[in-house]
Amino acid sequence: MMWNWQSGGWGMGLGIIFMVVFWVLIIAGIIFLIKWLVEGASRKGPSGSEESALDILKKRYARGEISKKEFEEKKKDLL
After folding, report:
1. How wide is the angle at C-alpha 56 spanned by C-alphas 75 and 76, nearest 5°?
2. pLDDT at residue 13, as a whole number
3. Measured between alpha carbons, how far is 60 from 53 in angstroms, rounded to an integer?
4. Low-confidence residues of the chain: pLDDT under 50
5. CA-CA distance, 67 to 57, in Å (whole number)?
6. How much is the pLDDT for 11?
7. Which residues does 66 contact at the CB level (< 8 Å), separation at least 6?
């Protein structure tokens, strides 16, 4: 039997195209999931939890970015 377009050639071609599109979407989804998980982990601190506002304030005071007066005022606002 000879192969021609009327005997299912288009159906076969569309099937291959849909299969390629399917796998591209699967791979893109896996890449997106990995990227989302990695970025989520990098947003958190080294211990796995986010720093509190008071911890950040203490670090700024320790580095000399704010004065003792500013530290005390901001600490009262937070607590």
Report:
1. 5
2. 72
3. 11
4. 1
5. 11
6. 61
7. 57, 60, 74
